[in-house]
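Marked as duplicate of an earlier ticket. Keeping the data here for the record.
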Amino acid sequence: MATCISYEYDATTPDATWLCAFCERGPHAAGLGDLFGPYPLDTDCDEALDEASRRRAEGAAWLHEACAVWAPGLLAAGARLWGLAGAVWSCRGARCVVCARSGACVACRARGCRARAHVPCARGVWTLRDEDLHALCPRHATDTPS
């Protein structure tokens, strides 16, 4: 992901409102590094958002690179992102099985499993393979060959 850090961004004195749109943590939380953004949440697009989601998606989003990589339907090319509004609202509608907060973007790939987790919650507990975005919850990690 190309760097797109706002000129307003200061990692040493972060603004408390700058939270990742996915994990809702600030910069450098849980070893996640800088926040990138702000990216506008464009709701005037072909993404399947209902009217209530469109109203909630107004504004801009900050994100950690690690969270964005695992977000479903998010495509990055250079400093541009496609599918951000849909990915944000898809993840915000999912509860993390580890901490029970919303915003979980890592999904277990086992058929029929609905387990979701935040990237920092899944690290060390789930089987995560960054090279092919393969994630298995603890229940399925032992059931499926890698």
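See parent ticket for discussion. The chain has a mean pLDDT of 81.
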